Amino acid sequence: MSTPTTDPAVDPIVVEIVQGTLASVEMEVETAIARTSRSPMIRDAHDFRAGIHDRQLRKLTGRSYSALVHPVARDFPLETMKPGDVFFHNDVYESEGGIGHLPDLCVTVPVFHEGEVVCFVQAFGHHDDIGGATPGSMPSAATSVYEEGLMVPPIKLWDQGVPNEAALRIMTRNSRMPESLAADLDAECSACLMGAARLTELFERYGRQTVEAAFQAILDKTTETYRREILSKIPDGEYVWEDYAEHDGVDEPKLHTQRITLTKTSTGGPGDGPKITIDFTGTAPQAKGPINHCGDYADGNFLKKWLAPILRNLADTPERMGELDVNEGVVPLIEMKFPEKGTLLTPIFPAPTNARTFVILRLLGVLAGVIAKAVDGKMPADQETIRYTGVYGKDRDGKDYLMREVLGGGAGGRYYADGEDTIHVVPDSRNLPTEFTESRFPFLVERLGLAVDSGGPGRYRGGLGYEKHIRMLKDANFMSIADRSILACWGVKGGKAGRPFEVCIDPGGPEERYVDALADAEPVKAGQVIRIRTTGGGGWGDPLERPVEEVERDLRWGKVSFEGARRDYGVVASGTKEDPVIDAAATEQLRAQLRDGRGEEPFFDRGPGYAQLAGGATSADVDWL
């Protein structure tokens, strides 16, 4: 593989044009997929993303994380590729760490200029069903990847513009939703081919030397920006923290540890500048159930770009944070050290992986936590922003249906602001529209709003999660792939943990029951309600320092109850939600009592659920500064 031809004198205006074109093409590809796909998960929930990579397999765009081109280039040398080729894979263990579970299907299209591959357009998304033991291809009790669906290593799905009908037929035959799968794949392939054509035009306009020089300048700028503005904020030293997944679907709930030892040095990075080392030693053994993630491939290339957005919280202002892209330019600044094979992050084939979100989402929080120890807490508190819920059964016409959505949760409080409500970690993803689901599936959405009191108390409150009520019109089965139902999103520097995930069937009815967060086929009768409450983000700072007027505002907005205001913030109020009346004297007295009644507290608050799994301990050794 040849190295790119670079020109240090490339015009900065051309660099801006090239960077803008890349962003525009990426957005155009995503828009085309959204408008031409069929499944609710892709079209409506927008659980997919596109990326553009150079011929060195480096990610050039920074709007979203993406899969890797490495497995395609490994199996298909670039010199054998032809215009119109489309490559496909979803095999977790053959993806070099870029695919986490089998429902994530990835298509890759090479871009050509004067007969040579010059870059790649790629899209991957979470599809409704690729076979396996349960509808949706995410069996919560799987003990082997073979139970999770059809595995496809990198193949040529289109050959010079001609689809491989045999391969498509095999894939759709293994899916419970063949029409949706076929339509989604066609949308993704066509959109990436369109994106490739757009990029070919860019090369034709400026020439390969100039465009590749611009690519290098884009990545170099990212490296320099993070080195100067971000890594400089972390004092040199070694910092350790850990967090946990709570269950794996097979064993009884326990603490599945994910540990990071972060080392910051002022030398050793690009140009002998600063770098950080992320060492995962101390991470728990691989689980029997499907919460494992194959992170130790391609030197952790995927995980470096997955975790790097957390670093942006160290930017000087929130506005600056929003300007920082995460592309391949961050990779040289980060070294990763993995434990031996056989851990949650280094699983051995054929360990199951369909619920690997429990691990990779937790790692975002572990990195935020370990950096918080280094910077006196100036990082957001914890959040848990992905869980899969849904129902399946027979629709009004007696046909099989599957409705599944990714519901977000509250973001963590920050040292300067409350956490945002009901966010989704995938850019532009969202809950399914009520109008669409009620017209297509046999249920009614009776409520969709904020889960009151779910945000962790703090000087800056954690964001609120969803509360959703679904009334089934026909007998069905409820399914859930979720974590944080025992352990909560942690609070930091005096902030308290948010409220965990919770599902109740027939609330207030004769068959009221709470459902485990990992459920494949929980029966629900016609007429019964499913109540889903998603996680609230952790709080930041002492909740007794939250100004009374902000608590009063939360009461008016319905984000905090009168009971919660008293219990969590020491604010005594009466009246109504529309017109709360604060008793200032009683508030001052109660806050004084609450302060006097508490002892020394750890830097992190994990919530009451931690003691259930930690033998009664209320904090871990690493929770103290």
From TrEMBL:
InterPro entries: Hydantoinase_B (IPR003692), Oxoprolinase-like (IPR045079). This is Hydantoinase B/oxoprolinase family protein. PANTHER family: 5-OXOPROLINASE RELATED, HYPOTHETICAL 5-OXOPROLINASE (EUROFUNG)-RELATED. Residues 11-543 form the Hydantoinase B/oxoprolinase domain. It comes from Ornithinimicrobium kibberense. Signal peptide: none annotated.
